[in-house]
Amino acid sequence: MMTDSSSHSPSRSLSHSSSLSRLRLCLHLFASHYRHAPLQASAILLGIMLAVTLLIGVYATNENAKQSYGNVSELLSQQARLSISHRTQDTIDESVYFALANAGFNTIASIEGIATDEQGRLWRINSSDIIAAISTSKQQNANDSSSSANMTSTNIPLAELLSGQPKILMSTSQRDRISNITNQSNRIILNGMPLNIITIDDSWGLGSALLADISLAQPLLNMQGKLSYIAVFNSSAENSNIADPNAADTTASEADTQLIARLTNTLTQAGIDTSKLNFTTQTSEGESLTALTASFHLNLDAMSMLAFVVGLFIAYNGVRYSLMKRQKLLVQIMQQGLDRRTVMLALSIEILCLVFVGCVLGFIVGLQLSQWLQPMVAITLEQLYGAKLLPGIWQWQWFAQALILTLSAAFAACIPMLISLIKTPLAQGAQKQPQNQRFNMIHWRQFIIAALLLLICTVGFAFTEQYRHSLVLLGIISVAIPLLLPQCLHWAVNLLSPFMPKGLWQYVIAETKEIIAPLALAMMAMLLALCANIAMNTLVGSFEITLKKWLDARLHADLYIRPNPNQIDALILLLNNDPKVEAIYDQWTIDSNLNRIETPQTQVPINLVSRDHLSLTETTVFKITADDFWPTFTAGESLMISEPLSIKYQLDIGDKVQLSQLNQHVLTVGGIYYDYGNPQGEAIITQSLWQQSQLPAKPISLAVSYQGDLTPLQNSISQKINLSSAYMYSQQRIKTEAITIFNKTFSITVVLNSLTLLVAAIGLFSACMMLTQARQAPLARLYALGVSRNQLRIMVLVQMLFIVLLTCLVALPTGALLGYLLIHKVTLQAFGWSIAMVWDWAAYFQVVVIAVVSCLFAVCLPLYWQTRKPLISSLQQEAL
């Protein structure tokens, strides 16, 4: 038996060596093919690279944002354990900070506010005790050798900052943005105070913040003796009489509870009323930001996946074209003795190599795209949700995920084609077989599948109530719509064929049927991008019109003022003494929790609001109300809630709720009103109920109806009670800033949408280039029969324009359908915003023009190159 085994061993080795040599030979042939036809490899790599670029760019941006939520940190410092703020006011007395610091707690005092420059632009000012911040950072970095920021490596003029000199810190990137706006790189004037700029590296995590020491910020923001909040950190130097020896044995939540208990005990002993203080842990803050911004990030993810699919269409089109061009070569090498398994393995290795190279290129460009997108996302998240983004980092796992996803999609798309190609009977020789019948069958099957998917989604949308489910259905529709296109193009050409005159134009129509198959994937990608563009234009345009109408109804006063609480009395006295003031309207606001009676375990964080009766009746735009709403509301038996709160937590008219600030008093939901200005849920109670519930008596903001120019009134308020103009908003200013924030909110989505359309245009260009190259011989034959070069160019151009215009014709209704679903399903469920759909014909026309121009550029350049070639070289393509 040993002899038999040893006799078979050399044959196995030879067989293995022979298989490897055949595989190397096959790979060498494929590499030689791409050296002679680099356009095919370029098209495949381009599609993969574009797909991965947009996928990684958005993915990295989202991951960095979410990581920032989970690592909520103080500027120039590290992650805080918890924060202390006032329950009902925007500020907290600085005596709380001194009491904790004297007791040995590791704390940082912080102030946040708004300042205006000379042009009236708003700037967010952050301030802290810089010495305490850097000391805390040094202490934590000493225990964390992996910390990326060396807090002692930058020269900060601490003595000048602590002495209250007018100097602020900002990141290099923010300084560059300010320089572009103000044309000054080292100086900015805020609230009338000239401030010198100190620039530090972006790695310190300032982002878009302007950081000042408290000694400067308190007079700058008129907050003497006041703080916005106090950050509390872990400390290894806490007093032994405060530390809990059993803390190491407790869970994280218990440790937070114990820390809050120690803080409360210390403040109580210092004579401070802790019932008015709110203790927020870092974990809950990060989770709340994650939940609040989930819809925004999901929207970006959906756009990136759309661009990824469009890019894969391009790559698949390149792979298919390359395989079709090598059909003769594959049959010949199998006739020469190469087995089918070796050829299949070689093709798989080829696709693997192309995907890997494309992913590497796409990953590098995608990280650069993320660096470009992140400032846009940071500004949006900061203005909408108050979230600050830390400097971004990249992880190799992102590349692995993109590679696996791309490989899976590539092989799922290509394996059926590879199997069909490998199974080609060798008895056919190397003659090309007509493909029309097979493609007609494929296109008909695609149409049937698309129709079934659309039917399933129609039924699904009738039952879905979660925006995630609606986005999945919307994604299915986005895939189904392009599948309809090839068959629709065939039907359109067949309908037009009888009306064409005989001769060259009849030939043009006949050949148009032939080029639908090779162009199908490129046009499907273009259709998908057009639909997305039309849908997004519909959403943005409709939302902008709806927002403007809502602002017109919501803003009834001429001036809106939000002073510091200690300035309210002086402000009211000043306004009452001004004869031009026609009316003063009050608003009260505090943070609260809403509890639904049917599900008592659910605590919903909301803004509890009250206004004077006249403001409520004149400015509230209701979606629905109970029949007896106003009598029950005035009597304090019911409340009104915002539409986002109603949709997110499925609250409806007649539901019983409790509010934590009203001693669990049971109220009935009597009205639901439209609200486009608050990402958090809001509930409104009557003024009498507010006053009966022992809530803060002083209003948090005032609205003023005024006769004449507002400028003298604002100057008077600024001079007499020292209130910055940053806290006074005219009606026009509010509208302008709301539209500005709105534009910034959708700017990144519009950018991604435009990039997706650009990807599709590049795909159309590469497809036209390959198709024109493949049609050299037919065009040369027509030229030999007497058709001039100009006639050939016009013929091909008309064919392409016809197909593109038919694609646009399909894109208009299907894009409007996607826009309708985005508005009435996804946006409504995700954000709680009811938007009236408006047809933006100018935007639709613009998209069609972009598609036509892309088509002209994609066709004219390669067509000119090909028709300039000598006749004989073009005819020789017939033999290839």
Automatic annotation (TrEMBL):
Gene Ontology, cellular component aspect: plasma membrane protein complex
Transmembrane segments: 41-60, 302-323, 343-367, 398-422, 443-464, 470-494, 515-536, 750-771, 792-823, 843-865
GO biological-process terms attached to the record: lipoprotein localization to outer membrane
Protein topology in the membrane: Multi-pass membrane protein
InterPro entries (alphabetical): ABC3_permease_C, Lipoprotein-release_system
Membrane recorded as keyword: yes
Principal place of residence: membrane
Cellular location(s): Cell membrane
UniProtKB keywords: Cell membrane, Membrane, Transmembrane, Transmembrane helix
Keyword Cell membrane tagged: yes
Occurrences of domain ABC3 transporter permease C-terminal (ranges): 303-425, 753-867
Family: Belongs to the ABC-4 integral membrane protein family. LolC/E subfamily.
PANTHER family: LIPOPROTEIN-RELEASING SYSTEM TRANSMEMBRANE PROTEIN LOLE (PTHR30489:SF0)
Protein name: ABC transporter permease
Annotated source species: Shewanella livingstonensis
